[in-house]
């Protein structure tokens, strides 16, 4: 028993020191689609909230330098430019990564719920400490939004809420896989090497999930994805409970990481530089779930904005 406890302590510590290097969650186009879904949801259900959010986003420090040139497209209507603002806000925390921006917070993008199928461990009661995680960051930015902070700070908080609502619905940003092959963790699937088919190049599992739905970093493409997801995945009732909604969303994503992304530990990673070919039914099985998660991220973000903007 003592030896087993020592082993568990050792791998817990290894994960603590090594899983701070998580990569991006949904890619930028997918985050843009989440912003577009939230925009349309608010447009339909709470135009007043939509107007307030737009007014705050226009106070963002990067609105004139980073965003204005992108929205200067003369083919866009005024309504499309407003929607584009939501889309750019949703991707902003990824746009500033690695640029020494004081608003860049690497650990905010994920949470390390432990999954060790070889030891029969799937733990959501606590998270390994790596700094503030996605659940803590979401609550923090909600508090900023409801405070007396300057509008420029609230605009930054809004961008983080937009982005984290997306990140938390990406299953591989909630799970720390520990296995004999990855005793220090697979970094949210970044070390888990796979191929979609034998003829495809090797990539990692995280990258596969990241760009599964869209690769074009353009307004029209992301907006069209939002339209399709709104049609195929309507809104879902809110998860109710005493804990913050973000925590419920994160544990739901963790369940999907275990059951679908890693297939209860049965998904086999490649060795060395060569990726293992995914099961024949993998893409067809997980893609509808990814679409569902992205749609829910947009709807749940809109619901959060309606509640938070009403309280302040």
Describe this structure in words.
It is a single chain. The protein has a single domain (2-311), classed as P1 Nuclease, CATH 1.10.575. Helix content is 53%, strand content 5%. The chain has eleven helices and six strands. It has a three-stranded mixed β-sheet with strand order 2-1-3, with helices on one face. Strands 5-4-6 form a three-stranded mixed β-sheet. It is globular and about 50 Å long. It comes from Spirosoma sordidisoli.
Q: Specify the CATH architecture.
A: Orthogonal Bundle
Q: Kindly estimate the percentage of residues that lie in beta strands according to DSSP.
A: 5-15%
Portion of residues within helices? 40-55%
Q: What is the element string, with H for helices and E for strands?
A: HHHHHEEHHEEEHHHEH
Q: Stretches where pLDDT falls below 50 for ≥5 residues? A: 1-22
The number of helices is 11
Distance between the termini: 53 Å
CATH superfamily: P1 Nuclease
Q: CATH topology, what is it called?
A: P1 Nuclease
Tell me the count of domains: 1
Can you tell me the CATH class?
Mainly Alpha
Task: Walk across the major sheet and give the strand order.
Answer: 2-1-3
Let me know the average pLDDT. 89
* Structural classification: mainly alpha
Which value, in Å, is the CA radius of gyration? 20 Å
Specify the biggest β-sheet: 3 strands, mixed
Number of strands: 6
Sum up the overall morphology in one term: globular
């Amino acid at each position: 028993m003592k030896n087993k406890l020592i082993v568990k302590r050792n791998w817990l510590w290894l994960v603590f020191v090594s899983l701070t290097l998580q990569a991006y969650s949904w890619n930028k186009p997918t985050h843009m689609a989440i912003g577009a879904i939230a925009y349309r949801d608010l447009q339909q259900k709470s135009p007043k909230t939509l107007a307030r959010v737009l007014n705050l986003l226009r106070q963002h420090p990067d609105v004139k330098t980073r965003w204005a040139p992108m929205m200067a497209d003369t083919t866009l209507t005024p309504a499309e430019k407003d929607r584009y603002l939501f889309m750019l806000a949703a991707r902003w925390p990824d746009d500033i990564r690695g640029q020494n921006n004081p608003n860049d917070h690497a650990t905010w993008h994920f949470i390390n719920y432990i999954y060790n199928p070889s030891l029969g461990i799937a733990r959501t009661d606590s998270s390994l400490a790596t700094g503030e995680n996605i659940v803590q960051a979401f609550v923090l930015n909600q508090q900023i939004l409801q405070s007396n902070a300057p509008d420029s700070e609230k605009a930054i908080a809004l961008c983080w809420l937009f982005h984290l609502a997306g990140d938390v619905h990406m299953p591989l940003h909630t799970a720390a896989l520990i296995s004999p092959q990855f005793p220090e963790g697979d970094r949210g699937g970044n070390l888990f090497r796979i191929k979609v088919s034998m003829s495809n190049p090797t990539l990692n599992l995280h990258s596969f999930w990241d760009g599964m739905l869209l690769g074009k970093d353009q307004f029209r493409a992301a907006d069209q994805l939002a339209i399709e997801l709104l049609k195929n995945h309507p809104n879902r009732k809110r998860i109710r409970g005493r804990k913050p909604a973000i925590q419920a969303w994160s544990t739901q994503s963790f369940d999907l990481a275990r059951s679908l992304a890693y297939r209860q530990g049965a998904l086999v990673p490649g060795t060395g530089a060569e990726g293992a070919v995914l099961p024949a039914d993998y893409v067809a099985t997980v893609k509808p779930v990814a679409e569902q998660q992205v749609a829910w991220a947009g709807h749940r973000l809109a619901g959060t904005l309606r509640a938070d903007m009403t309280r302040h």
